[in-house]
UniProtKB/TrEMBL annotation, chain A:
Its EC number is 1.1.5.3. It comes from Streptomyces clavifer. This is Glycerol-3-phosphate dehydrogenase. It is an enzyme of class 1 (oxidoreductase). Residues 416-470 form the BFD-like [2Fe-2S]-binding domain. InterPro entries: BFD-like_2Fe2S-bd_dom, BFD-like_2Fe2S-bd_dom_sf, FAD-dep_OxRdtase, FAD/NAD-bd_sf, G3P_Oxidase/Oxidoreductase. Residues 22-371 form the FAD dependent oxidoreductase domain. Pfam families: DAO, Fer2_BFD. Keywords: Oxidoreductase. It comes from the Bacteria. One of its GO terms (molecular function) is glycerol-3-phosphate dehydrogenase (quinone) activity.
From TrEMBL, chain B:
InterPro entries: FAD/NAD-bd_sf, FAD/NAD-binding_dom, Metab_Enz_Cyan_OpOx_G3PDH. This is Thioredoxin reductase. The keyword Ion transport does not apply. Keywords: Oxidoreductase. Residues 12-301 form the FAD/NAD(P)-binding domain. It comes from Streptomyces clavifer.
Length: 473, 411
């Protein structure tokens, strides 16, 4: 197995025709990584290029981490189909590779009579979307199912198959499997210009030029800019910021389901959801911005979340806050994905992948691969991908610190480094030595949870940094 | 072995945490012949927070003038081991398997340890940026004092060039010292507290009445924004921010046991015998009051040992009889915060420790139970946020054990 991951210097093999890629995917978020993995099934030279220093480093790392059923999608839309198909694909893939998933179910909670009146419509919509396990529950059952809910909840729509998933392990699994199957991953590689000719594209990047016969644009927040480099002016990405608060693990017992708001004309509202790491999420805000780098939180945003959280679950906001983050969703002003093939240009644009993108990622990848074939790419017969097992970051199954068998084999799995998250030396060592290793402490955190807990490094921060710097001087 | 591959063991006393409180308790109990006394420390090295504090002043009463943190930690460890306590480092307690049974993880495997008495001495931490809800971007370069001290003194890591220190409690001065040791220039110390009436000569500019409203910078930290009490906003340019103080108890194990917490301290509610709401589970040190100096924590370790010995001998009072002690605003908390167990038992140092939310000039402390006043006491020094104030314990024998909660007010 030859793995090609580059992080600096001129891109390899950019010179002659032998250096030409068959397909280049721009953007290594969850969608780009899924597409690269799907292409890795075929005898193709595929490149995955990413502007930042890690995969899954934009919108993919900062979302609500829900594996949706698609019950509330717009019936008949591309998004509805890809979410429905993607959910099945990703659930099976997670099972196979060890990506943490917890099927908590969701309750869409009505807080006033107007919202209560909308629930039957949402039930009918779920059925139109091919999801028939949803049902209405009354105030008493709701109270029994969620005893810590604030006063005034009138009823709910239950969606038993809504689940939470690890947003960090998912793109990492895709990228790991892709590069092990021969896909080249180029990090710190920002696309600056694209020159197109009938036989293919010359992609100019911050690390020099790259030639490719086919091009896939999965650049997320920058998908419209890449599209314009190719002469299209079809859509504009408006970053929609979502700020989220992550509460301490000691809050986890307060909440049993994903608690969704009833969507109103004022927006989708704020949810409360468990995470696979055993925390509780509150968010997101929904703010339309111009700045595609504005991933900061604001005092107003956090105040709003705490105010809404206090209504949904008063005890929650009394718990300590472990993390605050903000992600930008790639809104395009259209309530659907914008996936467009350009046969004459050997190009597929994957735009407007909204918050459902994590769920739909594998179905998007299948869809995009079929579109590429339609534009003339000869795929040939698919072959199997090398099986992978991802490190378990979730609480649903025992993590290494609870595994006597692992510790007996290697005492490093019994050597705790990050005490808040119970991360062991063995896991940190494995991540630093993994196929797609972290390039930063944040990357290490997303692969292990180290220094991601309630103390945020007060106890272990310097020790974790020392391990990282020792491995990657 | 249990089904999950855990080795089952029993000890007489299990102490969780080998900082000043846990080590002192272990030394005292082992010396008193309490049987097998085991101290568990999740870190690879025992000694607790003082290990990372290069400044002097530790253990003043024992060493005449004090010693450095690392030396104090070494002495505390040596004393516990010499007394016969079994000190095990690199063993983390991960949860409970019974009222007095814990589960542990260490390099030698998983264990389930049952004790006749458990002492929680898990200490405290500074609240990090997220818990303080400081908005803005998330570049690297934001530290707590705890992380900074380890980064500088233990690992010699590169910090930055220009730092802003948030807070002006003693721990903030420890942060300044660590920054200086790392060659970092200190731009300013900032505090949301008003200026003290008496001006103190300082080597670092102090901005009072300033609240941190944001962190700036994308890949690198570029500045911190402040709002002053008069509404003005300022940006201080820096590449490092150290958030000091704002300690909270590391109370996870206590909470996982369902032990009642005090709403003021957020640590286990406890009486003068350092008993928690769970019979047989005791607590000592900064888990109870975040935070007091190491010497106070060690005093409590010695005091809790006496109560544990009573428990082992069967001469202790029944638990759960005490009345709550409530600190009324502007007081933030009091510790111990439950009365009892009897008229004879007094807290370590024969006094209670309290905190105030705002500065009080020579406050009058009044202790009352219902309409009955139990005690009044004028303090001879101003009470300042972040610093301890003390209340004598002599009134404890006047508490009506059947009466309502006892309130402590300040004016």
């Amino acid at each position: 197995m030859t793995v090609t991951i580059t992080t600096a210097g001129r891109l390899p093999g950019a010179g002659g025709p032998e250096g030409t890629y068959d397909v280049t995917v721009v953007g290594a978020g969850v969608v780009g990584a899924a597409i690269a993995r799907e292409l890795a099934r075929y005898r193709l030279r595929t490149a995955l290029v990413e502007a930042s220093d890690d995969i899954g480093n934009g919108t993919s790392k900062a979302n609500t981490a829900i594996l949706h059923t698609g019950f509330d999608a717009v019936p008949g839309s591309l998004e509805a189909r890809l979410v429905r198909e993607g959910r099945g694909l990703l659930a099976a893939y997670a099972e196979e590779t060890g990506i943490p998933v917890e099927r908590t179910g969701a309750l869409l909670v009505a807080w006033d009579t107007d919202q209560l009146a909308v629930l039957p419509e949402l039930l009918a919509k779920a059925e139109r979307n091919g999801y028939d396990a949803a049902r209405l529950i009354g105030a008493d059952e709701l109270r029994a199912r969620e005893p810590h809910l604030g006063p005034g909840a009138l009823g709910a729509l239950e969606i038993p198959d809504e689940s939470v998933i690890c947003p960090w392990t998912t793109p990492l699994a895709f990228a790991t499997q892709a590069v092990r199957a021969g896909v080249h991953l180029h990090l710190n590689c920002r696309v600056t210009d694209i020159g197109s000719a009938p036989h293919g594209h010359t992609v100019r990047t911050s690390r020099g030029p790259l030639r490719t016969r086919y091009l896939v644009n999965a650049a997320g927040l920058y998908a419209d800019e890449i599209d314009r480099l190719l002469g299209h002016d079809v859509f504009t990405v408006t970053p929609r910021r979502g700020q989220l608060i992550v509460f301490d693990k000691l809050a986890r017992d307060l909440v049993r389901h994903i608690l969704l708001p009833v969507p109103t004309s004022a927006g989708k509202g704020v949810l409360v959801a468990p995470t696979v790491f055993g925390n509780v999420l509150l968010g997101p805000t929904s703010e339309d911005l111009d700045d595609r780098t504005a991933t900061g939180s604001t005092a107003d945003g956090l105040d709003l979340l705490r105010e809404q959280g206090r209504r949904i679950m008063p005890a929650l906001v009394d718990e300590e806050v472990t993390a605050v983050y903000a992600g930008l969703r790639a809104a395009t002003g259209q309530e659907d994905y914008r996936i467009q093939d350009h046969p004459g240009r050997r190009y597929v644009a994957v735009g407007g992948i909204r918050s459902t993108g994590l769920t739909a990622s594998m179905a998007i990848a299948v869809h995009v691969t079929a579109l590429l074939a339609g534009t003339g790419l000869e795929l040939g017969p698919p072959h199997g991908l090398p099986p992978i097992t991802m490190p378990n970051l979730g609480e649903a199954v025992p993590r290494p610190y609870r595994r006597a068998d692992l510790i007996a084999r290697d005492p490093a799995y019994g050597t705790l480094v990050c005490h808040c998250e119970y991360v062991t030396l063995g896991e940190i060592r494995d991540a630093l030595d993994s196929t797609v290793p972290p390039q930063s402490l944040d990357g290490l955190r997303r692969r292990t949870r180290a220094r991601g807990g309630r103390c945020q490094g007060f106890h272990c921060g310097a020790a974790v940094r020392a391990l990282f710097e020792e491995a990657r001087p | 072995m249990t089904g999950s591959g855990r080795t089952e063991r029993t000890v007489d006393v299990l102490i969780v945490g080998a900082g000043p409180a846990g080590l002192a308790a272990g030394a005292e109990l082992a010396a008193a012949g309490a049987g097998r006394v085991e101290i568990l420390e999740r870190d690879q090295e025992a000694g607790g927070i003082p290990r990372h504090c290069r400044h002097g002043g530790f253990g003043g009463r024992l060493t005449r003038g004090g010693t450095s943190g690392p030396a104090y930690a070494r002495q505390s460890v040596a004393a516990a081991v010499r007394a016969g306590a079994d000190l095990r480092t690199g063993v983390g307690v991960t949860g409970w398997a019974g009222p007095l049974t814990v589960e542990t993880t260490g390099p030698t495997g998983l264990e389930q340890i049952t004790a006749k008495a458990v002492v929680l001495a898990t200490g405290a931490r500074e609240r990090p940026r997220s818990a303080r809800l400081i908005p803005g971007s998330r570049p690297p370069g934001v530290y707590t004092t705890g992380e900074l001290q380890q980064a500088v003194h233990r690992y010699g890591q590169r910090i930055g060039t220009r730092a802003v220190v948030v807070g002006d409690e003693p721990v903030a001065h420890a942060a300044v010292a660590a920054l200086r040791a790392a060659g970092v220039r200190i731009v300013a110390m900032v505090t949301d507290q008003p200026a003290a009436p008496v001006r103190v000569r300082r080597s670092v500019p102090l901005l009072t009445g300033a609240t941190v409203t944001g962190i700036e910078g994308r890949t690198r930290l570029t500045g911190v924004t402040l709002r002053r009490t008069d509404g003005r906003t300022t940006t201080l340019h820096c590449d490092t921010v150290v958030l000091t103080g704002d300690f909270v108890p590391d109370h996870e194990l206590a909470r996982r046991a369902g032990i009642v917490l005090d709403s003021g301290t957020r640590g286990p509610a406890h009486d003068a015998a350092y008993r928690t709401s769970r019979p047989g589970v005791f607590a000592a040190g900064n888990l109870l009051h975040a935070v007091e100096p190491a010497g106070v924590a060690a005093d409590e370790g010695r005091a809790v040992a006496v109560s544990v010995l009573h428990r082992l001998a069967g001469t202790d009072e029944p638990a759960g009889e005490g009345r709550p002690l409530v600190a009324d605003a502007p007081l933030r908390w009091i510790a111990p915060n439950v009365t009892g167990p009897d008229a004879a038992t007094r807290p370590a140092g024969d006094r209670f420790v309290l905190r105030t939310a705002r500065r009080l000039a020579l406050p009058l402390l009044v202790v009352s139970q219902g309409r009955r006043e139990l005690h009044r006491q004028r303090l001879l020094l101003p009470a300042v946020p972040g610093r301890p104030l003390h209340l004598a314990a002599g009134w404890l024998d006047r508490v009506d054990p059947e009466g309502p909660a006892v309130h402590i007010s300040a004016s």
